[in-house]
Amino acid sequence: MSMTLEVFVNQINDFDSLSASQKIDYFVYFHTSIMGNEGCSPKEIENYFDQLKTSKYSNIPQYLKNNSKKVRGKLTKFVLQKGLYHLERTKKIGIDELMNVPKLIVPTNSYFPLELFDNTRDYLKTIAKQAASCYDQGLYDACSVMTRKLLEVLIIESFERFKISSKIKNGSSGHFYFLSDLIDHFRAETIWNISRNAKDSLTSLKKMGDMSAHNRRYSAKKPDVDKLKDDLRIVLEELVHLIDYPNWKK
């Protein structure tokens, strides 16, 4: 359920003490950042004043227009695009901080090329981005664990892709094996042809994730992760290519 205007303004300290012009800034933020609309019109801001039964700014269109002009020595508050107003980036970030909105972390390709997962599945892209983001932020234990999860998913989906997932399930429970057994079965499977380098790297990559997840005295450092980056890239590329997601209809 979307946040209501009343709930939103109650999260702002002393909102009712703000001037009418200051309230406009928050209304534009609510309309675009909270409600997800593409820009805000003067009429929509007027409606927000009406909803809260609070005194309106005398000339909303003029206020928006004046504060979207570039004037020397004065920061603009709004950007006008296609007849609608948006908060200028620095103004939005300022309100984000007041609202305790987490900063958006955009992962880079420093750990592995994210485009490897462009034509896969959304859940795989999410795991890959989390692993890459952890690397970028220096969270190397978390990076190792997410890498382990990524490999586990790809190995399972390799067997599912070739309709042989029964080979990696416990017969009594129907659950998938743990990663160590998954790797052994993957390496031994003859239905596909995987490079020796990729097969050998799986064990090292798993060990890195295991150490980070289960060894309480171990703390992964950048060199620990970096020494396996090249191996990881090879393994990921081979697994994604093997599964051939664009032609796999689950």
Short description:
With 250 residues, this protein is mainly α.
Q: How are the strands of the largest sheet arranged?
A: 1-2
Q: How many beta-strand runs?
A: 2
Main sheet: strands, sense, barrel:
2 strands, antiparallel
Tell me the domain tally: 2
Shape: elongated
Report the mean per-residue pLDDT as an integer: 92
As residue ranges, the low-confidence spans are none
Cα distance spanning the termini: 31 Å
How many separate helices? 11
Structural class: mainly alpha
Using the coordinates above, name the CATH class of the largest domain.
Mainly Alpha
Helix content: 40-55%
What is the succession of H and E elements?
HHHHEEHHHHHHH
CATH topology of the largest domain: Four Helix Bundle (Hemerythrin (Met), subunit A)
The CATH architecture name of the largest domain reads Up-down Bundle
Query: What is the alpha-carbon Rg in Å?
Result: 26 Å
User: How much strand?
Assistant: under 5%
Please characterize this protein's 3D structure.
The chain is mainly alpha-helical and 250 residues long. The protein has two domains: 94 residues, no CATH class; 134 residues, Four Helix Bundle (Hemerythrin (Met), subunit A). Helix content is 54%, strand content 3%. It is built from eleven helices and two strands, in the order ααααββααααααα. The chain has a two-stranded antiparallel ribbon with strand order 1-2. The protein is elongated, with a radius of gyration of 26 Å. The mean pLDDT is 92.
Task: Please name the defining characteristics of this protein.
single chain, 250 residues, mainly alpha, Four Helix Bundle (Hemerythrin (Met), subunit A), two-stranded antiparallel ribbon, elongated
